[in-house]
Amino acid sequence: MKSLAIAIVVAISGCIFSPVSAQVTAGADVVSSYVWRGVLCSNGVNIQPTLSYVNNNFEVGAWGSVDQFGYREVDLYAGYSVGGLSLGVTDYFWTPGERYFSYKNDATPHLMEGTLGYTVSEEIPLSIAVSTVFYGDDKKADGSGDQNYSTYIELGYSWDILTAAIGMTPADGMYGDGYGGATGFAVCNMSLTAAKDIEISEKFSLPVMASLIVNPQAEDIHLVFGFSF
What values do phi and psi take at 15, rounded to 5? Predict the structure, then answer.
């Protein structure tokens, strides 16, 4: 999420949210490979730390991913949720070697994305999320320099320890067979994830997960294992 957006939202939260309910959390996931929306980002073991500040329904934070081969990603995000509705903005940065603080639209390595999500209820755990890149390094392939507005739509349903999801892009964008590769409408992500806590001792349980991910547009498949701490 864009630094300016975070500054604005942090200022607002300091004014209207109670500090009593605020908390800072930190954690990390370890995954056998990093697959994002059906696209393989890193084929090595990735450590993915998270640092977040939560106040009532508002959250800002940082999420990252790094592997042993030099892949590095740092994303900033801000979000607000009420009932089953959620709004968010994310600043993606995954191009090491580029200047991080370069935000000029025709030269920035950042991707700015807005997301609108809705979950029906706890009794009906059906969700939909629509995410669109509105600024940054997501330009049309025709060389015009115009914004591509890559959009990703995902439907999800959870029951017991399983979560099923299907993701698609409605038009030309960066999904499918790799960044810049999807042409027109494409189903780029079909996944089934199982997650549970494995009890190690009376005081400690280890959350683990396994995901089977298929990308029909790219004719690719992934099986990912991970755990959190």
Answer: -90, -40
